[in-house]
């Protein structure tokens, strides 16, 4: 994972993470934790696009810690479970793409 996502303590600008068709099977939790480890101190990540990346597992609730996130696209993967409520608390979030996964549960009434 660290081979394609450089981790530096002196990151001052990290605005987007784009990943398309990269076969990240079983790596979503690790990927999100690496992203959060980098951007939590600067908190400026605004886009996460990992559609069609063969992601499996649940959408990590830690994504809700990214207070400036504007777009989250996890469409066309193999994600399961529900969309964490923490994601819907991000006031800047304008788009969430979750189509063509195996998600379950209900959406909050306030969205």
UniProtKB/TrEMBL annotation:
The record's SUPFAM superfamilies line, in alphabetical order, gives:
L domain-like (SSF52058)
Source species, domain of life:
Eukaryota
Q: Membrane-crossing residues?
A: none
* A Pfam family recorded for this sequence: LRR_1
Coiled coil ranges = none
Q: Where is the signal peptide?
A: none
Question: InterPro entries from the entry?
Answer: Leu-rich_rpt, LRR-RLK, LRR_dom_sf
Q: Which Gene3D superfamilies match?
A: Ribonuclease Inhibitor
Q: What is this protein called?
A: LRR receptor-like serine/threonine-protein kinase
Q: Which organism is it from?
A: Forsythia ovata
């Amino acid at each position: 994972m660290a081979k394609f996502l450089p981790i530096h303590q002196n990151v001052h600008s990290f605005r987007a993470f784009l990943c398309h068709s990269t076969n990240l099977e079983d790596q979503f939790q690790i990927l999100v934790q690496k992203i959060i480890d980098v951007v939590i101190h600067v908190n400026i990540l605004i886009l996460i696009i990992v559609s069609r990346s063969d992601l499996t597992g649940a959408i990590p609730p830690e994504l809700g810690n990214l207070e400036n996130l504007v777009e989250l696209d996890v469409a066309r993967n193999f994600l399961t479970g529900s969309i964490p409520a923490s994601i819907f608390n991000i006031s800047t979030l304008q788009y969430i793409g979750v189509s063509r996964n195996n998600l379950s549960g209900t959406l909050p009434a306030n969205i």
